[in-house]
Specification:
2 domains; single chain; about 270 residues; about 80% helix; mainly alpha; elongated
């Protein structure tokens, strides 16, 4: 009876720990949606009006939109940090690459945030000094910087790196149903090629090419966030089985645990 109690306890602890990890990662993924989508509409006045600095402006709205972009950047880093301890068991190199690509994406987003806040500052101070008209070229340049960061940060990096790296890790590990990472692995090259086409002037930002690739990435990240939030990781996944065996093994059996982990990881990569 005592043995049964100990077994149940040691299995519950690692499972609860992994459930919390999945919950945190899932919520952070959903935060990226809740922050980035409203930000697009809130920033519209400064992004679509080339003479924003001359007008009365919607500084409070624009600043709030910039803060949502900042929250999005922080949540991007959080998703990578939360998942790293789990997915590194599948492939540490790919997991580290995912963390670095997520950090790079966040850094590019922050550059866009700073550019927008600089436009607001120039409008306020320029209007007060009576020389707002002379600041119009500077404002347009800062908006152009923000547009470029949007294309490279949330546009190019998630499609080119994040989806491919994390999608591969999730597909091999089976931590979530394979149909979820498949959406990202299919959408990634499509959206990547579309965004590269925009950069080189081959493709317009609003086009059929972009529309084909965008849904795959959108639903990949949304489905991943929802699944991890409400379902957690699949308990039958090889990594989860190996983690439970490792956490529940007696001291002195490290070699056996490493062997079990290697077998489970290889099975997940099959």
């Amino acid at each position: 009876m005592a043995s049964d109690i100990r077994t149940t306890t040691t299995e519950r602890i690692p499972m609860d720990s992994m459930r919390k990890t999945a919950l945190v990662a899932g919520i952070l993924y959903l935060i990226t949606f809740l922050a980035s989508i409203p930000a697009v509409f809130l920033l519209d006045p400064v992004l679509t009006n080339p003479n924003y600095i001359l007008g009365p402006g919607a500084d409070t709205q624009v600043t709030f939109g910039a803060m949502l972009d900042l929250i999005n950047a922080i949540a991007c880093i959080g998703t990578a940090v939360a998942l790293f301890s789990v997915v590194k068991r599948q492939h540490e190199g790919l997991a580290l690459g995912f963390v670095m690509s997520r950090m790079f994406e966040a850094a590019v987003i922050v550059i866009g945030v700073v550019s927008i806040l600089a436009v607001v500052t120039l409008r306020q101070h320029g209007a007060a000094a009576g020389d707002a008209a002379s600041l119009v070229p500077a404002g347009r340049a800062l908006v152009a910087v923000r547009d470029a960061t949007f294309l490279i940060g949330p546009g190019l990096i998630p499609a080119g790196l994040n989806a491919l790296l994390l999608g591969t890790l999730m597909y091999r590990s089976r931590l979530v149903p394979r149909v979820i990472p498949v959406m990202g692995l299919i959408g990634a090259p499509l959206l990547l090629s579309a965004n590269l086409g925009i950069i080189f002037g081959i493709n317009d930002q609003v086009s059929v090419w972009s529309a084909i690739g965008l849904p795959g990435i959108f639903f990949w990240e949304l489905s991943l966030g929802l699944w991890m939030t409400f379902k957690g990781f699949n308990r039958s996944a090889p990594l989860m089985v190996a983690f439970a065996a490792e956490a529940g093994s007696p001291e002195g059996s490290a070699t056996e645990v490493r062997s079990q982990t290697a077998v489970a990881t290889n099975a997940g990569a099959a």
